[in-house]
């Protein structure tokens, strides 16, 4: 009697004996991973150079590069896909990509100063709340339309939250790089945008934790409740146990002296341990790394040295792998027919309308000049990497199907792509604009010479 048997491919060995021994190095994990990293870095850097005249941030080139290397373009060639990105290598590639992403989220946390968020004025806080709530509500409405058309069978609660987060998120690291490239970080618009994006980022991660808790495989609501409660317990432990240790290390690293190597090793190990803890809880390893980055003391050289140690290798070498990992899951060919393309347009319009209109209206209400308010709307509409993280988690959790995933990736690409050209056209820092408040200089004797000391 014939029986159906599923034969699993043998796991890849780490290293080969070399081509002269009659072995193909691409059948082994290490040489194949090296080839993948070199190809991805070279390809995305070339795209970044091509897009430089359009003043696009590097994240755009990396997203486009990931999509082009996937089944949407070069991956249509079965030979290319099976040679360079075979299915058996995906575990190693995803592990490397997520390790790089883990440390990148630690970097994002390092750059995010909670004290600055606490000092955020009502103006930036109101803009941030509007930039989250209005698109989130529109995202909920859009999720109903998608569920009735291309997302049949998606679980309503997690799908609703994932759609809301996807449309309401602002990518803090991407926005920081756009503002730096446009030399707007020190302007009023730049400061408000950074403060509002920081608040938005923290709120988005909280909502994403909720979405992940709801998207667990268990149907029992008690499991989701336990996930959220243990997540809160982890946060309390991080603030009251881990933070004092980090504060002690920061105090013992005074200005003018090198930071001790074992302090750096201990901190990076803490990042991995926190990632392991949050992954065990069920809210993804990225949250642990992000929390450790936030609680690291920002005073003194300690945080700066950590940034220097990680900044070159992680964003430059490992992070592009995450975009390729996403690109390999994105097949633009799944968007076919008038209905699918119509839904793509609907999602893009909803995302842009919610962010830009919501932010602009509230900005005008808090006395920001109209031109600056429009600029803030487009700046807050940038998505990029953080959006891809949300979408990939939704895809891995089976909340988003292939078609919905592809539509949302293209939405993230479009909204980030239009940010720099429109901001450059709308907002000119050199333009004489109406000040937010009257600034006057009082002098006792008008006949004396005005002397200013500039440091």
UniProtKB/TrEMBL annotation:
Domain of life from the UniProt record: Eukaryota
Alphabetical keyword list: Antiport, Ion transport, Membrane, Potassium, Potassium transport, Transmembrane, Transmembrane helix, Transport
Gene3D superfamilies, A to Z: 1.20.1530.20
GO MF, one annotated term: antiporter activity
Transmembrane segments annotated in the record for this chain: 28-47, 59-75, 95-112, 124-146, 158-180, 192-216, 222-242, 263-296, 341-366, 373-393, 405-427
UniProt source species: Papaver somniferum
Alphabetized Pfam families for the sequence: Na_H_Exchanger (PF00999)
Coiled coil feature spans: none
Listed InterPro entries: Cation/H_exchanger_TM (IPR006153), CPA2_transporter (IPR050794), Na+/solute_symporter_sf (IPR038770)
Protein known as: Cation/H+ exchanger transmembrane domain-containing protein
Gene Ontology cellular-component annotations: endomembrane system; membrane
Its membrane topology: Multi-pass membrane protein
Listed GO biological process terms: potassium ion transport; proton transmembrane transport; regulation of pH
Cation/H+ exchanger transmembrane domain span: 42-424
Family: Belongs to the monovalent cation:proton antiporter 2 (CPA2) transporter (TC 2.A.37) family. CHX (TC 2.A.37.4) subfamily.
Annotated compartments: Membrane
